Amino acid sequence: MNTFEDFNIKKQLRKAIDELGFEKPTPIQQASYSPILGGFDFVGIAQTGTGKTIAYLLPILQDLKFSDQLQPRVLILAPTRELVIQIVEQVEILTPYLSVRVLGVYGGSNNIIGQKQALTQGVDVIVGTPRRLYDLALSNLLRLKSIKKLVIDEVDIMLDFGYKTQLKNIFEHLPAKRQNILFSATMTSYVDELTDGFLINPVKKTISISGTPLDNISQECYAVPNFYTKANLLKHLLEDKIEFSKVLIFVGTKVHADSLFEILNSESEISVIHSSKEQNHRTKSIEKFVDGTSRILIATDVIARGIDIEKITAVISFNTPLYPENYIHRIGRSGRAKQQGRSILFYTEKEMVLKEAIEGLMNYTIPISNIPEEVEISHQLIDDEKDKPIDEINISDKKSMTESGASFHKKSAKNSKAKTEKKSYNKTLKEKFKKPIRRGDKIQNMKKKKKK
Which of 74, 100, 168, 282 has the least CB density, counted as fewest CB within 10 Å? Predict the structure, then answer.
């Protein structure tokens, strides 16, 4: 299928596609249209910016017939509010000539009462984050037994960021007979597990290997000793407002995002978004970045999955991501629509192993750049970078120390500190509080009675 004319689509959809100026389907759109339209379970893996949303919406909308029933027939799950809003907008621009009712539901500042009222008016396609969707299902206003097609978008992020339990809870409310459609930028072990768990002989299409670096994105990296030196280097790079005219900065945690924002925010051209920010703040931050009011946007990985912004001149990974696939997803934000992109990675000595995992996945060594002489090397450390006292090292750390190989030698008894009795967690608490820690716990008391 080289053009949308080769798709067997109804004239109302075709007219909308023509008005949007779409001429040729992307590879993932070509690969997914027929299997999804045919009713097969489907897993699609493709990099960011390849048109995954339209890839599943086209066959679903083609197959969706008019109905005045109140309960939805299509359920689309997404990890973030931003992505929910984006998917709803895509449905709306594809259906100006179709009678399709779509509703986006998500938490935060959005009022659940308003969402419940919208449900009573009837909906064909419901798009939502797992937690809010499940809350509505429990209220009994949203009944999921009418769902014919389930789509899980960005499934890798959905699982990596702790939605596994919510997904299982939602599955219990869905009919056993349904079509399951999964889309993701990367294929991880979690995605494999979910695929094997509830899909039936799915059609799998991987359009590009997740580790393949994009040809139109230049990559470089800096070995940086710590957080504050990273911040100094970042300040230095961002002084070039021509080269860095629209910059997306990825950080690993919400705390680091806020700290970096405070360090850099000498001007009003910087915005920050993460999951703890109110929806209004997040929406305004993205709007400012899109229209150019903000030159720099600081974001965490989970939030950035919902961002679809063109003409980003550079993506800077302030930290090295824990999952190498997420690095591929980050750099894919730059160099869209065949434009030249740029990726810069900062890594510390502790992050070296993560950087090597990325290079192993890509089969590509990221060129190393030297820190400019003007950049101050800071010796100040944040809490995450400070060495932990011995008593704070967790069991897994101790295990790795003792299993570190032939170079590690256990001290003899005479050279080691006096041995102390190893006490269980429960015993320690009992000695501290002088009473059973579960006194009055009904569940525990019931268990004791059963044992007797």
Answer: 168
Residue 115 and residue 103 in contact, taking contact as beta carbons nearer than 8 Å: yes
The string of pLDDT tens digits covering residues 301-335 is 766 665 667 789 999 999 999 878 788 878 877 87
Domains 4-206 and 217-381 share a fold: yes
Residue 358's alpha-carbon distances to 73, 189, 316, 354, 364, in angstroms, are 40, 16, 15, 6, 8
Sequence-ordered strand ranges (E) for 313-362: 314-317, 341-347
**CATH annotation of 4-206:** 3.40.50.300
Q: Which residue has the tokens 């449905």?
A: 91
**C-alpha to C-alpha distance for 361 and 374, rounded to whole angstroms:** 34
Domain boundaries, given as residue ranges, for the chain? 4-206, 217-381
Q: Residue 16 in contact with residue 94, Cβ under 8 Å? A: yes
Q: Tell me: the pLDDT tens digits for 257-279?
A: 899 999 987 666 888 887 777 76
Does this model's pTM top 0.70? My answer is no
Instruction: Please say if the pLDDT value at position 3 is more than 60.
Output: yes
For residues 334 and 341, is the Cβ–Cβ distance under 8 A? yes
CATH number of 217-381: 3.40.50.300
User: What is the C-alpha separation between 58 and 93, in angstroms, rounded?
Assistant: 12
The b-or-e profile of 156-177 (16+ CB within 10 A means b, else e) is bbbbbbebeebbeebeebbeee
pLDDT tens, residue by residue, 145-179: 999 999 999 887 777 667 888 888 999 999 999 99
Chain centroid offset of residue 374 CA: 36
